[in-house]
Design a protein that fits this description.
The protein has about 290 residues and is mainly α. Helix content is about 75%, strand content about 0%. The longest helix has about 35 residues. The C terminus is likely disordered.
Length: about 290
């Protein structure tokens, strides 16, 4: 319970700071510090889970959790460098060396999620349906990315550097991998005993995608400012991941013999219609993109 309280306090602090504190160096410094605390919380939670899984299930079972922990650790290093560059050196942190560590987060999280154990599908029809669902989400993600991020980037008359514009597009592009990981996490069939780790990881991935898109949009338009909405979303995303890790570790620490579920089974949660939602949203965006403007 204490981890949930700590996570909630971090989120509340981030929200209060973003909404009520006026712009200035103090807001920037404290906002960056809160984001660093949140990402460190996420890395510690996933590391705790990895240690517990390794002790009870062995090295192979703990590998996905170590990869996700490494991803959040890289993100924390990026947050620390961002704080130093912006708050201490008083230079622009975007683009900077911090982006190297932010970018490392995506492949590490993706590999960690896809290496989580899954149950074999019963027949060829189920496997084809699963692959079709993955393809639908991938196509939908490409359409959403193209309409909301790539098209404005190409048509924008911006004074930003080429590297900054490229990175503004790279982050949402990397989010396509997170969308694929999110889809596999939710649609893969696994033992059904505890939904919490899967849902928390799914919330983390989804919130990170939204945060990246918000960050890229602000970077290309009015300009990103530390301590505002994107930082709140980044903090929430890393808090969700940390809570998933703490929950997984505590179940094992309690000596439970239950197999902690990593994603809901298809029969247990028939209301999931993730590919259909993505496809519908993409069709709406295409219709808006093709609507002639005055």
């Amino acid at each position: 319970a204490w981890a949930g309280v700590v996570g909630a306090l971090i989120v509340v602090a981030s929200l209060v700071w973003a909404i009520f504190v006026p712009q200035g160096m103090v807001k920037t410094l404290v906002g960056d510090a809160i984001t660093l605390v949140a990402s460190s919380f996420g890395a510690i939670g996933l590391g705790y889970s990895a240690l517990r899984v390794q002790r009870s299930r062995g090295n192979q079972a703990s590998r996905p959790w170590w990869l996700m922990c490494a991803g959040l650790t890289a993100w924390s290093v990026g947050d620390a460098l961002w704080l130093i560059i912006e708050g201490v050196l008083h230079e622009s942190p975007f683009p900077s060396v911090a982006d190297i560590f932010f970018v490392l987060y995506y492949p590490l999280l993706f590999m960690g999620v896809i290496l989580l154990p899954v149950a074999r599908r019963g027949n060829d029809s189920e496997r084809r349906t699963f692959l079709l669902d993955i393809a639908l989400v991938a196509i939908a993600g490409l359409l959403i990315f193209g309409n909301l991020i790539l098209a404005p980037l190409v048509t924008a008359d911006s004074s930003d550097s080429t590297l900054q514009l490229v990175l503004s597009a790279v982050y949402p592009a990397l989010d396509l991998a997170l969308l694929g990981a999110l889809t596999m996490l939710l649609l893969s069939r696994r033992p059904v005993t505890d939904h919490s780790p899967a849902l928390l990881l799914a919330l983390s991935l989804l919130t990170m995608v939204i945060a990246d898109c918000t960050f890229s949009y602000e970077s290309m338009t009015s300009g990103y400012i530390s301590g505002e909405l994107p930082d709140v979303l980044f903090s929430i995303a890393t808090i969700w991941a940390g809570l998933a890790g703490f929950h997984r570790g505590w179940v094992l620490a309690a000596g439970s013999d239950l197999k902690v579920m990593l994603a809901p089974d298809a029969e247990s949660l028939p209301s999931w219609r993730l590919p259909a939602y993505h496809a519908g949203a993409s069709l709406i965006l295409l219709a808006l993109a093709w609507t002639p403007s005055d």
